[in-house]
Specification:
heterodimer; A: MetI-like fold; 0% strand; B: 17 helices; flat
C-alpha cells in the first residue's frame, strides 16, 4: 500500500474530481439510508399531531412517550416479545449445535465419504419439496402449534455449515488432530477443549446470523401456529403495522380521532422496540461481519 | 456393525476405507443427527412431491392417494392466472437482477476508494444496518412513508404542488417499490463480499499502474473490476438461478387486493391455493413447476459461465 501522503501528492486533477464525486455520492447514499431510520426514531417520541402534519421532519418535536406506554400496556405485544425471545434462544442453540456437529466431521480430510455427504446437504440449497409437502410433514409429526415447528424444520443452514467447515479447515492446523490422536484424546474431547475455544469469532458470527433470523422470522409462525398465545412478535407486528389491527391498543374511553393518532405513534414505537435487541448488539458484533462473510466467500 | 462379504474384505481398497470409517466412528456419530435432519426435513418432502401427480385424499395420506398424471399441471397451464403469474414473477425477478445486482458492486468499488478510516467505517456501519430489519418492519416502514395523506413522501410531493400518489394500491408502483426498498435494505450488506474480494487484490498491480500514469478510474476499470470478476460471476449464477424464486415474505406482506394485478407471483399463489384454499395437490404441482424451472435456470447459467469464463459453481 502507498501511504496517504504519497498518494495525495501524486493525484492528478482528474483524480481529485473523482475523489470529490465519490465522497459526495457516498454521503448522499448515507443520508438516504440513515434518514428513514432517524425519522422513525424521532417520530416514536414525538407528538403524533406534529408527525402527521409534517412538522416533525428530523428531530423529535413535543416529546412524549405515549406510544411506548401503550405498548407496555398491551398484553399481546409483551407475550409476543417473550415468545420471540424463547424461540430465538432455543432455535439458535439448536442451530449452533447442529452446525458444529456437521462442520467438524466434514472439515476432516480423513473422513471417508465427506464429499458425498456434503453433496447431499448442498443439493437441498437448490431444490426442495416445497411448501405443501413440508407443511404436511410438520403436521404429521404432530408439531403444528408447538414450539418445535419453529425451531426444528430450519435446524441448520447449509450455507453456515460451509462457512464453519471452511473456518475449521483454515484456522486449525491438521497437526492438532494428529497430536490429539497420539495423546489418546477422542474427537469429542478435541472438539470441545481445543477447537471450539479457538473458534470464537466464527461462533459469534453464527450466533448473530441465526439469532437475527429467528428474531425476524414470521413465515413459519404464520403457517404452523394458530394459537395466539404462541405468536412471535413479528406476527403481532404484522397485525399492527400492516393490517392496522389495533382494537386493544387504546382504551375505549378515547375519542376515535385520538385512537387514530395513537395508532400512528404506536407504529413508530413498536418498530423501535422490536429492533432494540439487534440495535443494541450491533456495535459489538459489527467487527465480525466481514470476517464471517469473507470466510463464506472462499470456495471450500 | 454389518459383516462384510469376503470379496470386499479381500479388496485392499475397500479394507482401507473400512478401516478409516471404523477409526473415525465418532465423527459419523456426530454427523448422524444432521444427516437424519436432512433426510427427514428435506428429502422426505421431495419424496412427498408425488402429491403433485395425485389427487390428495386426506384419509389415504400422500402415498395412498390415487395417481392422476399431469392433471394439476394442465389445469395450471390452462388457468387464467398462469400468464399473469409468469409475467409478474419473471419481471420482478429480472427487475431485481438488473437493479439489485450491480448496485452493491458499484457501492463496494466506491467504498474501496475511501481513504479516511473513520468515514469508511461510518458508511459501512450505516449501510449494513437496514439488513437487520425484519421484513415485517420494512414493509411497515414502507407503508408509513408512502401513506397517501400522512406519509412523508406524499407530503413532499404536495409541498412541490404535486398530487399525492396512492403508492401501495396502484399496481404500476408495486414492482418499483418492491425492488427499490430491497436495494435500500440490502445494498450495504451485499457489498461486503465484493469488498472482501477487493481487499484481496495485489497492491503491486495498483503501484505498477500508477507508475504508468493510470488515473483512479482507469485503475478501477482495469484492475479492480477484473479482480472481482470471479466473485461477480459466482453471485450472478446464484442470482440467475433464483429469478423465479422471488421471495414470498415481502411480496405477501406488500400485497393487497388492489395491487394484485402486478403483485401476484407464483409463491404467493402457491400459499393461497395450498394453505388457504387447501388445494394441496394443485399447489404442490405449481410449486414443483417453479422449482424445476429454477433448477434448470441455475444449471444452464452455470454451464454457460463455465464455458465462457471458467468460474462456475461446480
Amino acid at each position: 500500500m502507498v501511504s496517504d501522503a504519497d498518494a495525495v501528492t501524486r493525484q492528478t486533477r482528474g483524480d481529485r474530481v473523482f475523489e470529490w464525486m465519490n465522497y459526495a455520492l457516498l454521503t448522499i447514499i448515507l443520508l438516504l439510508i440513515l434518514y428513514p431510520l432517524l425519522f422513525v426514531a424521532s417520530a416514536s417520541v414525538s407528538d403524533p399531531q406534529a408527525v402527521n402534519s409534517g412538522n416533525m421532519w428530523l428531530w423529535p418535536k413535543d416529546i412524549t412517550f405515549l406510544g411506548y406506554e401503550k405498548i407496555f400496556q398491551n398484553k399481546e405485544i409483551l407475550t409476543g416479545y417473550l415468545n420471540t425471545i424463547m424461540y430465538t434462544v432455543l432455535g439458535t442453540s439448536i442451530n449452533l449445535v447442529m452446525t458444529i456437529l456437521a462442520a467438524f466431521p466434514l472439515s476432516r480430510r480423513d473422513l471417508a465419504g465427506r464429499n458425498a455427504i456434503m453433496a447431499m446437504f448442498v443439493f437441498t440449497m437448490f431444490f426442495s419439496g416445497g411448501l405443501i409437502p413440508s407443511y404436511m410433514l410438520v403436521k404429521n409429526l404432530g408439531m403444528l402449534n408447538t414450539v418445535w415447528a419453529l425451531v426444528i424444520p430450519g435446524a441448520v443452514s447449509v450455507w453456515n455449515i460451509i462457512i464453519m467447515r471452511t473456518f475449521f479447515q483454515q484456522s486449525i492446523p491438521s497437526e492438532i488432530h494428529e497430536a490429539a490422536a497420539i495423546d489418546g484424546s477422542s474427537d469429542f474431547h478435541l472438539l470441545l477443549k481445543i477447537i471450539l475455544p479457538l473458534s470464537m469469532p466464527i461462533l459469534a458470527v453464527m450466533t448473530l446470523f441465526y439469532s437475527v433470523g429467528h428474531w425476524n422470522s414470521f413465515f413459519n409462525a404464520l403457517i404452523y401456529l394458530t394459537d395466539r398465545d404462541r405468536f412471535p412478535l413479528q406476527l403481532i407486528l404484522r397485525e399492527i403495522l400492516i393490517q392496522n389491527q389495533m382494537e386493544q391498543m387504546s382504551e375505549s374511553a378515547d375519542a376515535l380521532t385520538d385512537q387514530i393518532l395513537y395508532a400512528q405513534t404506536i407504529k413508530y414505537a413498536v418498530i423501535i422496540v422490536a429492533n432494540l435487541p439487534v440495535l443494541m448488539l450491533y456495535p459489538f458484533l459489527q467487527k465480525y461481519f466481514t470476517k464471517g462473510i469473507m470466510i463464506g466467500a472462499i470456495k471450500g | 456393525m454389518k459383516a462384510l462379504p469376503a470379496s470386499e474384505i479381500s479388496n485392499p481398497n475397500h479394507r482401507r476405507v473400512w478401516k478409516s470409517v471404523l477409526k473415525n466412528w465418532r465423527l459419523y456419530v456426530m454427523l448422524a443427527p444432521v444427516i437424519l435432519y436432512f433426510l427427514v426435513f428435506h428429502y422426505w418432502p421431495m419424496y412427498g412431491v408425488q402429491l403433485a401427480f395425485k389427487d390428495f385424499i386426506a384419509t389415504n395420506g400422500i402415498f395412498g392417494s390415487p395417481w392422476v398424471g399431469f392433471k394439476h399441471f394442465e389445469r395450471f397451464f390452462d388457468s387464467y392466472y398462469f400468464w399473469r403469474l409468469i409475467k409478474n414473477t419473471l419481471s420482478i425477478g429480472l427487475y431485481e437482477l438488473a437493479v439489485g445486482f450491480p448496485i452493491p458492486i458499484i457501492l463496494a468499488l466506491m467504498i474501496n476508494e475511501v481513504r479516511h478510516k473513520f468515514y469508511k467505517r461510518l458508511i459501512q456501519t450505516v449501510t449494513y444496518m437496514p439488513h437487520f430489519l425484519s421484513t415485517v418492519v420494512l414493509v411497515g416502514m414502507i407503508m408509513i412513508f408512502l401513506a397517501p395523506e400522512t406519509g412523508i413522501v406524499n407530503q413532499v410531493i404536495k409541498l412541490f404542488g404535486g398530487e399525492p400518489i396512492r403508492f401501495m394500491t396502484e399496481p404500476e408502483w408495486f414492482k418499483s417499490i418492491f425492488v427499490m426498498s430491497g436495494v435500500w435494505q440490502h445494498m450495504g450488506w451485499s457489498s461486503i463480499i465484493y469488498l472482501a474480494a477487493l481487499s484481496g487484490i495485489d497492491p503491486q498491480l495498483h503501484e505498477a499502474a500508477r507508475v504508468d500514469g493510470a488515473s483512479r478510474l482507469q485503475r478501477i476499470w482495469h484492475i479492480n473490476i477484473p479482480g472481482i470478476m470471479p466473485t461477480i460471476v459466482i453471485l450472478l449464477i446464484l442470482k440467475a438461478g433464483s429469478i423465479l424464486g422471488v421471495g414470498f415474505e415481502k411480496v405477501f406482506l406488500m400485497q393487497n387486493s388492489l395491487n394484485m394485478e402486478s403483485s401476484d407471483v407464483i409463491s404467493t399463489f402457491v400459499y393461497r391455493s395450498g394453505m388457504l384454499e387447501a388445494q394441496y395437490s394443485f399447489a404442490t404441482a405449481v410449486d414443483l413447476f417453479n422449482s424445476v424451472i429454477n433448477f434448470i435456470l441455475l444449471v444452464t447459467v452455470n454451464f454457460i459461465a463455465r464455458r465462457a469464463g471458467g468460474s462456475s459453481l461446480w
